[in-house]
Specification:
The structure holds 2 protein chains of 2 kinds. Chain A is an alpha+beta fold. Chain A is about 40% helix and about 40% strand. Classes of the chains: A alpha+beta, B mainly alpha.
Chain lengths: ~120, ~240
């Protein structure tokens, strides 16, 4: 798989706009439509929220070309106190609703990474 | 009452009071999901309304015996309805107007702040001031660099940018043979050929062409459009 972009960032809200804009750029590069691009941004936000609630302050975000766009977000650094919220269920269901092939990677029972993909033909 | 019990009772009785109770209990899901889609050109209130309607429909369809949590069941249902709403409504009607409006507000506030403080405001400051997200501010500023193809071109008598854009490659060079062009041009009147020569041979502007032909620029514009349309038709027919 060809890598489009890889970056490491905080999972906190203040960098989110920058990450969403970068995601929009990669989606455009990958040939995703406007709707899929916006959906991909939502998925990125939800994944980072989930990792943040799992206790991780930083994450590595990587975008790959795999016939569509494959996105992998993995926790980085040390894990703090988990603080799950009831909305986490909605975040997970939203990821499933918007992207395909959603995978939640767990380590020692705790969420460690999220990956998903978007097709370029809009069949998500 | 527990989620399963609530839905079981509603399914068995169809009691509207129970349905209302369920709606109120899960309204937060509609709110949470509507917020996720803000910033795509549709107001939150509209999204929330779509989400609540989807929630109500979903409550009627949900079967607690299938062992799925209601939030897991309803999220894709609401998301699907919101996405359908975007597909049907937002792209054509709301986005350009909203972006243009926001851009106007951003510009006014930026100018005012710059005049008052001597420095341009950051997107974060504008976001707080205008009550929109930073991302919307940045996106609308980016959108300002885009020119609508339907926008009229100044001094070109109603012609739009789309009319002036060259097709991929020069259309006149891409014709199969120069003969096709020659044949098409031969069907034009002397005045029409004169116009084509000035505009496309000598690359004169419409105003300069008008001066040479001793007519108004408006006349040139209209005649040019008419001639080009006819040439296109003839060339299409000739090359089919």
């Amino acid at each position: 798989m060809r890598e489009y972009l890889k970056m490491e960032a905080a999972t906190s809200g203040e960098i989110m706009t920058t990450l969403r804009l970068a995601t929009g750029g990669v989606c455009s590069l990958a040939g995703l439509g406007l709707d899929a691009g916006e959906d991909c941004k939502v998925c990125l936000t939800e994944s980072l929220l989930l990792l943040s609630h799992a206790g991780y302050g930083r994450a590595c975000i990587a975008f790959f070309e795999d016939g569509g766009l494959f996105v992998r977000i993995t926790a980085e650094g040390t894990c703090g106190e988990a603080a799950p919220v009831p909305e986490d269920d909605i975040s997970a269901a939203l990821l499933e609703a918007l992207a395909v092939g959603v995978q939640m990677e767990k380590r020692e029972g705790r969420l460690f990474g999220v990956s998903f993909r978007f097709a370029t033909d809009g069949r998500n | 009452m527990e989620e399963i019990e609530l839905f079981r009772q509603f399914r068995e009785t169809g009691d509207l009071a129970l349905r209302n109770e369920i709606v109120e209990k899960y309204l937060f899901i509609a709110s949470v999901l509507a917020k996720k889609f803000v910033g795509r050109g549709v107001e939150y209130d509209d999204l929330y309304q779509v989400a609540v309607l989807a929630l109500m429909k979903g409550i009627d369809r949900f079967d607690e015996r299938k062992g799925v949590k209601f939030s897991t069941f309803i999220t894709p249902t609401i998301t699907g309805e919101i996405k359908n709403y975007f597909r049907d409504r937002s792209r054509l009607v709301h986005l350009p107007r909203k972006v243009a409006e926001l851009r106007g507000r951003v510009k006014r506030e930026s100018d005012r702040i710059a005049a008052e403080t001597g420095k341009a405001p950051t997107p974060r400051e504008l976001s707080a001031l205008l009550g929109v997200t930073e991302e919307e501010i940045v996106r609308c500023m980016e959108a300002g660099r885009v020119v609508s193809l339907d926008r009229p071109v100044d001094g070109e008598d109603g012609a739009t940018f789309y009319d002036l854009i060259a097709a991929e490659g020069d259309p006149f060079e891409s014709f199969e043979t120069r003969d096709a062009v020659k044949t098409a041009l031969s069907g034009l009147s002397a005045r029409e050929r004169e116009l084509i020569r000035y505009r496309y041979g000598e690359q004169l502007s419409q105003t300069e062409t008008a001066k040479r032909m001793n007519v108004s620029q408006m006349f040139v514009s209209r005649l040019e459009r008419k001639v080009l349309a006819r040439l296109k038709e003839e060339l299409k027919g000739g090359m089919a």
